[in-house]
């Protein structure tokens, strides 16, 4: 089950224009960059601001371009995606980072998520899913490819992520915290969770912090995986 969600407003000619999502694309393969950029440029609310071929170029984009989302390849010559994420952790206002990879599950992807990546997508992701993922990431939601495997779940976990273990972990939470965790698992941002549950964003932020502390999850992406494994999205 995909955790990507994209709740589009109903068509309305009087609605205000959608804010533009500024995106940087980083991949050492020119054809891959061009393909991803062309897909994203077809969306009216997404602008591909710039491209880069390696981690050093990615850091320059973040420093100079005011990006909302950075699509980052992991395996690049010179500074790779992992080293880039380590450097981005020092940035005061880093963009949401979505990892692009050809691998379904490996240690590098898990490391990237634990270093603060919003999520990951396989490079052969459907174009519509890529556009939705960028929108979700820009709103602070988690982006997990629907083919996320048990192996990767194990890499991400700081606790047992078998279904029974995850269910037991979640059962210790209050009903309200389980509601918030379920929406994290569905890819909702804090603002969207606040709207769904009729809470303030500051209250939601507090609940998210409480969930991470209670479950031992490193970040909301790991929490989203926990929600899936516990059956909250079934």
From TrEMBL:
InterPro entries: CheY-like_superfamily, NreC/VraR/RcsB-like_REC, Sig_transdc_resp-reg_C-effctor, Sig_transdc_resp-reg_receiver, Tscrpt_reg_LuxR_C, WalR-like. Gene3D superfamilies: 3.40.50.2300. SUPFAM superfamilies: C-terminal effector domain of the bipartite response regulators (SSF46894), CheY-like (SSF52172). The modification 4-aspartylphosphate is found at residue 73. The keyword Repeat does not apply. GO terms for biological process: phosphorelay signal transduction system; regulation of DNA-templated transcription. One of its GO terms (molecular function) is DNA binding. Signal peptide: none annotated. It comes from the Bacteria. Keywords: DNA-binding, Phosphoprotein, Transcription, Transcription regulation. Coiled coil: none annotated. Residues 166-231 form the HTH luxR-type domain. Residues 22-138 form the Response regulatory domain. PANTHER family: TRANSCRIPTIONAL REGULATORY PROTEIN NARL-RELATED, TWO-COMPONENT RESPONSE REGULATOR. This is DNA-binding response regulator.
